Amino acid sequence: MRHFLIVLFIMFSVSACSSRQDECNTVNNCAAKVVNRIQQNLILEQDYYGKKAVVNLSLDNKSNLEYVEVVENNGGPSFEKAIIKAVSSTFPYEPLLTLSESEYSEFMDIKLTITPFK
């Protein structure tokens, strides 16, 4: 199984969503959508800015989150909880299922680096 590495530098901004914007038709487009969803779900406290967390996660064949594990974190326990909650709230993400089987397989095991910036 191929592992897909997404490096996320989450920058807080407000973005509008529409059903058309939620479509994924390429791996890169879907990765950007996943980044946006995690960003929207991540509730940040002031002291989280500039911190870093590395997260491993796995999805099943229906885009449900099978597991999430923070493997590196310099932001403390509350930052870790916020990251896990944001990732857990992001999935399932059914638009991923519109990808081909080989493309979707790139999303089944993901390693994220999350570093919030202002």
From TrEMBL:
Signal peptide, first to last residue: 1-16
Protein name: TonB C-terminal domain-containing protein
Entry keywords, A to Z: Signal
